[in-house]
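Bumping my old thread because nobody answered last time. Still need a sequence for this structure:
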């Protein structure tokens, strides 16, 4: 849960499964948070946004992103990692490291490499990828002053 500068509460969650009552659970977070802060003068308006990130093996068709109870409507923004294309960028970065182990990667390039395990389409490979990161970085020389 994050409180953004504009006062919006942002709920971000990573899901590796889809269960019948997930949307109800997510909606419960909104009601619980509203109940906790409804009388707090620091929040003139209560704005809540949910972004649910789904593992690559989860397909869009299996997710219901809204809950309509008549007087209460809850919706969230789903993000499906199987719809995010990063393979080409990833391969270019790895090639860049192989050509020059002293190369300074941008923050975006570092993020692509570090989050690569999340973009795999197969469940088994998803579990194995974190163990491959040391192999990827074994020849990369990081400048300690530039590490964040």
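Sorry it took so long. Here it is:
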């Amino acid at each position: 849960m994050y409180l953004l500068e504009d006062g919006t509460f942002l709920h971000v969650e990573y899901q590796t499964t889809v269960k019948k009552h997930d949307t109800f659970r997510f909606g419960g977070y909104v009601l619980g948070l509203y109940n906790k802060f409804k009388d707090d003068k620091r929040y003139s308006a209560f704005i809540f946004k949910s972004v649910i990130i789904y593992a690559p093996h989860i397909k869009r068709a299996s997710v219901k992103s809204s809950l309509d109870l008549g007087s209460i409507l809850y919706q969230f923004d789903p993000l499906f990692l199987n719809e995010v294309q990063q393979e080409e960028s990833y391969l270019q970065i790895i090639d860049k490291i192989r050509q020059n182990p002293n190369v300074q990667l941008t923050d975006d390039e570092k993020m692509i490499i570090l989050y690569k395990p999340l973009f795999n389409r197969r469940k088994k490979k998803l579990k194995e990828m974190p163990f491959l990161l040391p192999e990827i970085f074994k020849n990369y020389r990081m400048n300690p002053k530039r590490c964040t």
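Helices lie at 22-37, 87-99, 107-115, 123-128, 133-137. Let me know if any region looks off to you.
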